[in-house]
Inverse folding.
């Protein structure tokens, strides 16, 4: 074994003192290790363990492909035996795309995220094990784990590269601990218009449309104006956008008339 765990910098892990450990069994290419390290740090994971890396360690290609995830590379620990890499863990999960003979609980990455969060909240140390790029994990690795993780993908093609697999697990771990709305409006330096500002814009718009002859059929006027209001109310218009639209209305009249309201 080489390397030491060191103290986790919680500023790099989203405030979690004991995030999951990633264990790569017999990784073949330094490039793939580096890309996996980059994916880890994207998701606040900083502890990487390698079991019998084919091309040895340290590895220049791993450093290059980590693209700045130096904390992961520098803290990487090397083991000759799986048992040693897993020895201090309370809970172990293994990733595989294939159905195995063993009777095991099976998680999706989405289900695993909250599971690991709950385990860590109980002060358990958690690890996720990934097999070699070419063959994946073997039956003996599945036997070492408490549960299996399988990614539900196209049944006709479930192959993932190592970094993709690590990112999927890491992403769901990260998402299970953050509260980010599924949708939000990016306002930059602007702010939503007040109802009074929007109403004044509609009055101005209706006056200009009147003078231009837009409302040719009087009976349709109320419905047309409602439709116009719905268009603008649906998008959540900002203060700056109200000012821009009113400026456009003035410009369309040749700039000769200021807004009436």
């Amino acid at each position: 074994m080489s390397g030491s765990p060191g103290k986790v910098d919680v500023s790099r892990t989203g405030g979690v003192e004991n995030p999951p450990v990633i264990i790569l069994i017999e990784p073949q290419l330094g490039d793939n290790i580096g890309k996996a390290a980059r994916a880890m740090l994207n998701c606040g994971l900083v502890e990487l363990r390698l079991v019998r890396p084919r091309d040895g360690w340290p590895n220049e290609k791993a450093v290059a492909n980590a693209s700045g995830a130096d904390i992961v590379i520098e803290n990487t620990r090397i083991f000759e035996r799986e048992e040693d890499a897993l020895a201090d863990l309370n809970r172990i999960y293994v990733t595989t795309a294939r159905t195995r003979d063993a009777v095991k609980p099976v998680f999706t990455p989405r289900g695993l995220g909250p599971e690991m969060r709950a385990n860590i909240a109980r002060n358990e140390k958690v690890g996720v094990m990934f097999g070699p790029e070419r063959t994946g994990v073997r039956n003996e690795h599945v036997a070492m784990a408490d549960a299996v993780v399988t990614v539900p993908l196209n049944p006709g093609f479930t192959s993932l590269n190592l970094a993709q697999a690590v990112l999927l697990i890491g992403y769901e771990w990260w998402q299970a601990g953050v509260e980010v709305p599924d949708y939000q409006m990016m306002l930059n330096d602007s702010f939503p218009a007040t109802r009074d500002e929007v109403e004044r814009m509609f009055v101005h718009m209706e006056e200009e449309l009147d003078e231009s002859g837009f409302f040719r059929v009087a009976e349709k006027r109320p419905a047309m104006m409602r439709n116009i209001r719905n268009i603008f109310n649906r998008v959540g218009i900002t203060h700056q956008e109200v000012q821009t639209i009113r400026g456009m209305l003035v410009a369309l009249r040749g700039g000769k008339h200021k807004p009436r309201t």
Remarks:
- The chain is about 40% helix and 10% strand.
